[in-house]
Queue: 3 jobs
Job 1
Amino acid sequence: MATPHIESKLEDIAEVVLMPGDPLRAKYIAENFLDDVKLINTIRNMYGYTGYYKGNKVTVFASGMGIPSIGIYSYELYKFYNVKKIIRIGTCGSFHPDVKILDVILSTGSYCKSYFSVLLDNQDVNFVDASYLLNENIKKVAKDTHIPIKVGKTITSDVFDLYVDNEDVFRANFPGNDYLAVEMEAFGLFYIARKLGREASCLMTVVDSLYDKKSLSSEQREQSLNQMIRLALDAVIL
């Protein structure tokens, strides 16, 4: 079985998927966290790997950047490969004074002004919830393993937040002041999951902030990302 963007056989892909944006991060996760790893996709260098974590079959598949890219890969994985759960793992920018560099954010839902839902379904939707049960798994694992996370609504933007020249204009496009972070993919993933009756969640590490200008060493960044990866892996196999 193959799709226009995935060359894998049906049996090559697990029912649970971790989805980083960067193909090289998918490679890193596979090589450092999974056993008996097999490379199962190389089309467009959007690497996918399947292996075993604590005896459970898990796929790690890159999404690329932005809603159109994650929309393609999540749709094909859910629709044609019988994937049941996807957790996006990535980075984000802080949009709230209480959210600091290296905090881990769990999105309860994402607001976006994209026309994605209109073009896909002729539905004018701007907010989509993450999957409640999958989020509950993540919160349980975080509590049991003493990993601090911040939980709340997030923003999906078509514009990379560090390139925003006018913060007032940017903020004026999002209702309220209670959004914790901004990233570029979660809305697309959540919408596709809802459309197809699947589960989706999003975990993010904060790497830039409007309020916290702390610079990160490569060791600090790697340690924080590793903690988030383990949290996602433990949650997705519950």
Job 2
Amino acid sequence: MATMPVKKLLITMSLPAIFSMLVQAIYNIVDSLYLAHFSYKAIEATSIVFPLQMLIISVGIGIGVGTNVYISKSLGEGKRGRASFAAQNGVFMALAAYLVVLILAFTIVKPFVHAYTKDPETADMAVSYLSICMTFSLGVLIEMTTSKILQSTGNMRVPMFTQLIGAITNIILDPFFIFGIGVFPRLGAKGAAIATVIGQFFAMIFSLCMLIFKKQDVHLLRKGFYPSPSYIWRILKVGLPSMLISALPAFTTIIVNNFIKTFPYAISVLGVYFKLQSFVFLPIFGLTQGGMPILSYNYGSGSRARFSQTFRFMATLAVGFMALGVVIFQSIPNYLMMMFGHGEDFVRVGTYAMRIISICFILAAVSISITTMMQSMGRGFTSLLITLSRQLVIIPSAYLLAKYTQTTGVWFAYPIAEFVTSSIFLPISIHVYKKEFARRLAFLEAQKQKEAEELSPAPATEAPNTELTAQAPSNETNA
């Protein structure tokens, strides 16, 4: 973290996460392709419930990122004991979050689904799929938290294998549960959900075993654990904004779906778009996963030069990869949509939507890089403000464009939001970076001076030389 060349370090730490994210993106596509061949209504059903799935994932991201930053900063300061207690409190928070999701699984699923479709078959598929995913969400919440804990120590390989285990298990089981191969029943969307949660539990078990039984810089089973309000608050201070950053797009999608639900194929197209764009966005998130612990460590140690080099290289790679995504989405969107083959109208609407929304990819790379930098410095609120502003632009834009242009113009809401947000927050983020690092360097300098004063010996008080005093003749004697 402190000595390896920045470019080599970032690539070394990011490649496993990027690879695992690409596997996750492949899983998303394969899962949807299986369902597309099962029934068009299955695609519509999973598109309806997709935002709530993202909300669950955002909870895991928030807890994981908050724990990751706290541990990385503690390790950068040389405080391993504090890092271990932060890891324990992070896992405790994931367990508490699961209990909340479990309660919601039995209360909100049916009302939510029926608000977006009146078709009984589509509604039944959506309710079954979402109920299973929420009821057994323990696997994904614990896996995401433990993977972030490992990443905070510089261990990127185990999280990569964790993602591989979950995704490959899911991909293998999908056709058996969806289509009813061999002794397995034909379950459709419900089968896809079962395959998903089984893969998540396998991934959780592997990640926990690696964290507990392999030598790590943090110890999850360290004695004396108790839920600490101070540790939980420090995790939430960074994690809650990260959670909201991930959750806000899901809330926005719920609202946008409400605007476009009367347009033919619109919700399904948006759902397919989010699956396809995961091939572009998830590798960027893998890159930032590798970059965040490096940024946090060097911020904690006050290494401004290495922090700046890491950010610049990370942002350059993100923009370059997003530019490749723009080329793909602009040149072959019709072929991408035809993989889900639902007729000419579906492909036509989807092709148009892909070309319009992908205009904002490069600006999105800049925003993602900036939010990662802010999170690594503990400025979670700034990151939240960037994401919140983006969603606040999307919602009214989508409403007005859907009202007056329908599907012709509604997709422009996304590039409009990215342009407005980047124009406002790029200069603000530069100012925050300079101010925050100046404050951090001043704090570290004060700590060094304090430690130096404590270690330096106190100056000895000179005692009077009684021998010389006694030998010196007094004025009285001389007189």
Job 3
Amino acid sequence: MKKVGNACPRVALVKGEDRYANIRRALELIASDINLDGVERILVKPNLLTVTNPLAVTHLDAMRALLDFLQERTSCQITIGEGSGTGAPDTMTAFRHLGYFSLKDRYNVQFVDLNSDEQVRVEILDSELKPITVRLAKSVVDAHYRISICPPKTHDCVIITAALKNMVMGGLRRRENALTAKLAILAQLIRLKMPAHSLWGRLAGRWVERSGNDKIKMHQGNPVLNLNLYKLARIIPPHLSVIDGLEGMEGDGPACGESVALGLAWASTDFVACDSVAARIMGLDIDQIGYLSYCHQAGLGQGDLSKIEIVGQNIDGCIRTFKPHKDFPEQLKWHIHGVERYLG
């Protein structure tokens, strides 16, 4: 795969009390890195995980700042795509409840439920590191330019969620009703607790396979989840990553954590650099986060902060150590012996 980031990528870091102004300024600082020449299909992926906790989702003002920046540089229609996860309202309900449809009044945008999109079948790994197939939304795979915009949050499986995880998990399809969703969650819990070759383990695994929820299929245990995020990063990496850090979320994220007042925004055309800066601001190191370590190791982007040019704010004055998820010690156990053979 062609490397997404630059050899010495830039991350724009801005501090202020106005969400819209922060994001606009961050984008303007790296405007020369954002090349939309010949781009006809732009896919913007917000994080609309819930409709009940504003901390967990991409704020409408953040999206407006991004769309104003884009509209000044391109006339093509922009697709705002999201694929809600299990336990969340369906995607179009989330768009409506969070006010996203009002964007049609001002911007040349269309909305796509990625869960209902055409599909592209790709290969990931199960808990035994054997190949299985999942479906990605075709609108994400085929986009000429993918943009991830989201808040920085702690996570219950992979320590943090920022630009890359937002893009990958939303790009996976989910087709199920309320009953099959609950059964898939139950089957997943059974599968993770039972030996894979036991009767219950095999039955639960078979149900997850047939559930129609490829987001759940990604969750084969924390070690392989990190590896699978890397594998899909090779297929649908963000070309532009925007983090709205006016408020972050710590503790039991990604949906139920507590507010962290950061007053920041940052952006980069290198998603590994962007998320590595996110990790540092949150008081973590890339070496603690499996999927980012894999992406850096495989050359998908730059994770070494000493090789990232941070423009705008000095990062040393922006670090605020986040309280991790309660399962943080278990999340650190993501290393897989001999993983190098899976990183090609």
